[in-house]
Design brief:
Subunit structure: Monomer.
Keywords: Fatty acid metabolism, Isomerase, Lipid degradation, Lipid metabolism, Lyase, Multifunctional enzyme, NAD, Oxidoreductase, Peroxisome
CATH superfamily of the largest domain: 2-enoyl-CoA Hydratase, Chain A, domain 1
Structural class: alpha/beta
Strand content: 5-15%
Number of helices: 29
Pathway: Lipid metabolism; fatty acid beta-oxidation
CATH topology of the largest domain: 2-enoyl-CoA Hydratase, Chain A, domain 1
Family: In the N-terminal section; belongs to the enoyl-CoA hydratase/isomerase family. Belongs to the enoyl-CoA hydratase/isomerase family.
Bound molecules: coenzyme A, nicotinamide-adenine-dinucleotide
Largest sheet: 8 strands, mixed
Helix content: 40-55%
Radius of gyration: 29 Å
InterPro entries: 3-OHacyl-CoA_DH_NAD-bd, 3HC_DH_C, 6-PGluconate_DH-like_C_sf, ClpP/crotonase-like_dom_sf, Enoyl-CoA_hyd/isom_CS, Enoyl-CoA_hydra/iso, NAD(P)-bd_dom_sf
CATH class of the largest domain: Alpha Beta
Shape: globular
């Protein structure tokens, strides 16, 4: 029988195969539930009711997925009928058994459709979940009411609060699906299941009537445990507590009342700025992949890697590459350093073995792919080499001269430098087209951000290879131009100065850290400095002292602290005290005395700062330098700055990133703040030309976010 589209151009079509009406959703790329899909599904259920020959309905997705959820682009826009809860109700109320056969993603609204069906089957590729929490939402189409009734409060809360995906087997064990299909395709498996149900005269079976909440005491205990855990873990987040409230309604209220409460709470989440921030982050982290070079060129081969230097970064990068299955050759200066480099790598795996997260055999098999040498000739066959030696131009150039000598033609030659001029490094060898910056963050095997720094002469396919490497290593790549500090560290240097100015003007480092934490960061800037080691910044400041603008304000507190050998956690004191290796620091009266002395030396009478003022200054500095970075094309778009800060600097995801945050605050307000601060310090506070231009045009950063 011919496919009948629900309407002329509908992404939902239906066809009867014997006595089963097969409904297919075909809405690439992921079958999201946009308005046309919702209309099509409603029409298909109406057709099933009207078709006397149809004894059951089968819902499947075309392509790799069942349904990836609501169309995220529609959130925040005027809703178009029918709503998803209405479509789910139509499916659940259908008088004929409805089967959902799931392959690939059944996420969010997609799982809610499946929960509204009467029977569910999953093939091995299926992944089921209610990930709305990651977008600042809650499942708003019955997920909070049907999931607990079907699988119990504990399992439902865990699934909804974590937002994680469950595979087919786990879904069966949880009771989310009734059956596993053996083949890989949902359509034939689902059809066989539907026919079996028809033959057995299986009844319509509504999830709203399911009984998994029957044990009231266990359900209540699960709720209380989730409440306590969420209060601790989801500090500052809006939707998790709403999720618990909605699930509680599933325990205490009739279904229809629970649905009404779920809708009310869902709309509150939709209106929250956190939803806007989190959805911006979702699209931004996909948008960063679309750099011009990834469209223009194909990546080179990436099978084997070399690393120069086995210190903090070299060892971390080696682990990241080993974890991705690549063979890695490490080069060090001498045998002693090589042994240390190898030990740095092994230490990571020994830690995992000790925690029971890796078997000793698995460690051995990973380490079998690792080799070390003090001779560059060992890199002759490497497809990519990443240099992570000392931050010193002469040392880097010497390393690149060796790479130029030994590496095969076409090998990608990357530097992990934090600040140095990569154009200069590239110009020093005979193949500048092969040289790229790959700026990993510490610890490199954990941190997700990878800045791909694009020097003037690099070939597009080398840049594309950087993006391919990021994918292989499960990192988030951001394209950056060459400048002092690229995107992230360049902006960091500026807002760190703003923090230092506030410290000298009267705010204690502890007040500043607390304000930054209350904004949503896991740590404040002075805690970060103590964690990373104050000596690194001290060395950089000394190196740059000669070229510093003599008119620029320079706060010396950090130097006074470093001069005492207080480098942070590793020396048990920095801005904070860490007695007996404690990880959480305690305020140090001696540091406060040093700051006081520095204020006196600089002739400053300290004043108090409210938390609001601290954050206005901190963010204004970050946003202004972010605007400069975009203006100078160091970052392609504001969203590239956002992703850099979300993945490299702990910026709270629910605020979307500094540039999204600026849009939400309003650019005129940010500019007015900068102009006000400039009255005291016009050298530091210079409004970015881009910020000024956007305010004049009445535009925002989002208007610059279109892909290149
Ligand atoms: N609504 C609108 N667009 C969506 C979408 C959704 N629910 N889910 C994915 N997309 C888009 C992506 O933005 C991307 O678009 P692009 O190619 O223009 O960048 C495209 O679909 C492919 O997504 P991608 O994530 O790159 O594909 P993948 O195969 O790696 O992963 C999923 C597929 C479904 C697992 C993943 O996209 C996902 O988790 N989606 C969100 C699911 C969700 O949160 N649903 C609940 C909504 S309330
Ligand atoms: P590190 O001092 O821990 O390690 C450097 C290693 O390079 C040492 O083991 C040293 O023996 C080795 N080395 C030095 N010269 C060599 C040579 N000629 N040949 C072979 N090996 C040599 O330094 P690190 O913190 O790992 O930093 C390395 C690079 O990564 C620097 O460019 C730094 O700016 C950059 N970086 C550091 C961080 C960080 O947080 N530490 C973050 C991003 C980037």
């Amino acid at each position: 029988m011919a496919q009948t589209p629900a309407t002329s151009a509908s992404p939902v079509s239906f066809t009867r195969q014997a006595d089963v009406l097969v409904v297919t959703i075909d809405n690439p790329p992921v079958n999201a539930l946009g308005v046309d899909v919702r209309r099509g599904l409603a029409a298909a259920i109406a057709a099933a009711e009207a078709d006397g020959e149809a004894k059951a309905v089968l819902i499947v997705g075309a392509g790799r997925n069942f349904i990836a959820g609501a169309d995220i682009r529609e959130f925040g826009q005027t809703p178009q009928p029918p709503s998803l809860p209405e479509v789910c109700a139509a499916i659940e109320n259908c008088s004929k058994p409805v089967v959902a056969a799931i392959q690939g993603a059944a996420l969010g609204g997609g799982l809610e459709i499946a929960l509204s069906a009467h029977y569910r089957l999953a093939v091995p590729s299926a992944k089921l979940g209610l990930p709305e929490v990651a977008l600042g939402l809650l499942p708003g189409s019955g997920g909070t009411q049907r999931a607990p009734r079907l699988i119990g409060a504990k399992a439902a809360l865990e699934l909804i609060l974590s937002g994680r995906h469950a595979g087919a087997k786990e879904a069966l064990a949880l009771g989310l699906v009734d059956r596993l299909g053996e083949g890989s395709e949902a359509l034939p498996e689902g059809l066989a299941y539907a026919r079996e149900l028809v033959a057995a005269k299986a009844p319509v079976r509504r999830t709203r009537d399911a009984q998994a909440l029957a044990d009231a005491e266990a359900s209540r205990a699960a709720l209380e445990a989730a409440r306590a855990d969420t209060a601790k873990k989801s500090r500052g987040l809006f939707s998790p507590m709403k999720i618990i409230e909605a699930v509680e309604a599933a325990l205490t209220k009739p279904f229809d009342e629970g649905m009404a409460l779920e809708r009310k709470l869902f709309l509150q989440c939709i209106d929250s700025p956190q939803r806007a921030g989190l959805i911006h982050a979702f699209f931004a982290e996909r948008e960063v992949l679309k750099a011009p070079e990834t469209k223009a060129a194909k990546p080179r081969t990436l099978e084997s890697a070399g690393i120069i230097g086995g210190g903090t970064m070299g060892a971390g990068i080696a682990v990241a590459m080993l974890d991705a299955g690549m063979p890695v050759t490490m080069i060090e200066r001498d045998d002693v350093q090589l042994a240390r480099g190898r030990a740095n790598v092994e230490k990571v795996y020994d830690g995992l073995v000790k925690k029971g997260r890796m078997t000793p055999e698995a460690k051995d098999s990973v380490m079998a792919r690792f080799s070390g040498s003090t001779s560059y000739d060992a890199l002759a066959k490497a497809d990519i080499v990443v240099e992570a030696v000392f931050e010193d131009m002469a040392v880097k150039k010497a390393v690149f001269a060796e790479l130029d000598r030994v590496c095969k033609p076409g090998a990608v030659l990357a530097t992990n430098t934090s600040y140095l001029d990569i154009d200069e490094i590239a110009a020093s060898i005979s193949r500048p087209g092969d040289v790229v910056g790959l700026h990993f963050f510490s610890p490199a095997n954990i941190m997700k951000l990878l800045e791909i720094v694009v020097p003037a002469k690099v070939s597009a396919d080398v840049v594309a290879t950087g993006f391919e490497l990021a994918k292989k290593l499960k990192k988030v790549p951001v394209r950056a131009g060459v400048c002092d500090g690229f995107i992230g560290n360049r902006i960091l240097a500026v807002y760190r100065q703003a923090a230092d100015h506030m410290m000298e003007d009267g705010a204690s480092p502890y007040e500043i850290d607390a304000a930054v934490r209350n904004f949503g960061y896991p740590m404040g800037p002075f805690q970060v400095s103590d964690l990373a080691g104050g000596d690194i910044g001290w060395a950089t400041r000394k190196r740059k002292a000669a070229t510093r603008d003599p008119k620029a304000r320079y706060v010396q507190v950090a130097d006074r602290i470093c001069e005492r050998g207080w480098f942070g956690q590793k020396t048990q004191r920095g801005y904070y005290l860490y007695p007996e290796g404690a990880r959480t620091g305690q305020p140090d009266p001696e540091v406060l005395a040093i700051i006081d002395a520095e204020r006196q030396r600089a002739g400053i009478t300290p004043r108090s700062f409210s938390e609001d003022e601290i954050m206005r200054r901190y963010m204004a500095a970050m946003i202004n330098e972010g605007a400069n970075v975009v203006h100078q094309r160091i970052a392609l778009r504001p969203l590239d700055v956002d992703v850099t800060f979300l993945y490299g600097y702990g910026f709270p995801r629910f605020r979307g990133g500094p540039m999204k945050y600026a849009d939400m605050v309003g650019l005129p307000k940010v500019l007015a703040d900068i102009q006000e601060f400039a009255k005291q310090d016009p050298v530091f506070w210079k409004p970015s030309p881009l910020l000024v231009e956007l305010v004049e045009r009445g535009a925002d950063f989002a208007s610059l976010n279109q892909s290149e």
